[in-house]
Design a protein that fits this description.
With about 260 residues, the protein is an alpha/beta fold. It has a single domain, classed as Rossmann fold, CATH 3.40.50.300. Helices cover about 30% and strands about 20% of the residues. It is built from 8 helices and 10 strands. A hairpin with a 2-residue loop joins β9 and β10. α5 packs across α6. Bound molecules: adenosine-5'-triphosphate. The site of adenosine-5'-triphosphate (ATP) has 11 residues, from α2. Keywords: ATP-binding, Nucleotide-binding. Belongs to the ABC transporter superfamily.
Length: about 260
């Protein structure tokens, strides 16, 4: 596998894809822990030079293994909520507990380590590396060990690409359609079977059939393995399948619906 030069993308991707352990000699182990419960209290996010918070959430409790939909108009704070839940953004006020861990109390390094253990993230903009192949992109969470990944992990990555319907052997993801790129991002988030999977508009670039297939994969993975899935979506075919849905507007929780 060719090794790309460190460039602008790597600075951003390294903490997100958990490359902070790249100095270690062994590949990171699969994220085999149980899904922790989530509890949020008095959460508020306000960016510098803004008069009021862009997101407030007084309280939220989510049991392990929950499939939670997050809906709302553009700009209502959905992506910001996902970033807060992973420690990629720090709140201005409030606490975010995953199990016994208060994410807001962790140092950057401890937060990276926590994320490495628990989280898979499907980004709205995918954050793939254009010059690498689909397989190489799926293997990115293995960090620079990706250049020397065990055959079993490469096989697993190829099977995930097969599951989402993208050929593993295409030369670079830059040559893929947006829908294919989105599916590579989905496969990458599943590589280490994360106890917590956060998905930001995971079907936005997919046609109906591909969207249904990918939603099936995400929902089945959560149900069969008792994984927590928090899924932001404008797609009603996705949101309508979520047993519990938070509806945001202008940074506030407007309604919460739970299937009987
Ligand atoms: N770094 C930032 N600095 C200042 N404002 C920001 C920043 N990031 C997001 N915002 C603002 O916060 C608000 C919520 O943004 P966010 O991306 O969370 O919304 P969203 O509901 O996910 O929108 P979309 O559905 O369009 O993705 C928006 O008004 C956005 O402009």
């Amino acid at each position: 596998m060719k090794k790309p030069a460190l460039s602008a993308w790597s600075v951003w991707l390294m903490p997100i894809l958990n490359w902070s352990d790249m100095a270690h000699s062994n590949p990171p182990s699969p994220k085999t822990g149980a899904s922790p419960a989530l509890e949020i209290n008095q959460l508020s996010l306000r960016f510098a030079r803004q008069a009021s918070p862009i997101l407030t959430l007084p309280f939220l409790a989510v049991e392990p293994g929950t499939i939670l939909g997050v809906a709302g108009p553009s700009g209502s704070g959905k992506s910001s909520l996902l970033y807060l839940l992973t420690g990629l953004l720090r709140p201005s006020k409030g606490s975010i507990h995953w199990g016994a861990t208060d994410l807001t109390a962790l140092s950057e390094g401890a937060c990276d380590a926590w994320r490495r253990k628990y989280v898979g993230f499907i980004f709205q903009d995918f954050h793939l590396i254009g010059e690498l192949s689909p397989l190489e992109n799926v293997l990115l969470p293995a960090g620079f060990h990706g250049w020397h990944t065990p055959a079993s992990l490469r096989k697993h990555a190829a099977s995930l690409l097969d599951l989402v319907g993208v050929p593993a052997n295409r030369r670079s993801v830059a040559d893929l359609s947006r829908g294919e790129q989105q599916r590579v991002a989905i496969a990458r988030a599943l590589l280490f079977d994360p106890p917590i999977l956060l998905a930001d508009e995971p079907t936005a670039s997919l046609d109906n059939a591909a969207a249904e297939n990918c939603a099936d994969i995400l929902f089945a993975n959560a149900r069969e393995n008792n994984r927590t899935l928090i899924i932001v979506s404008h797609d009603h075919t996705v949101i309508d399948r979520c047993p519990r849905v938070l509806q945001f507007d202008k940074g506030h929780l407007l309604t919460e619906n739970e299937a009987a």
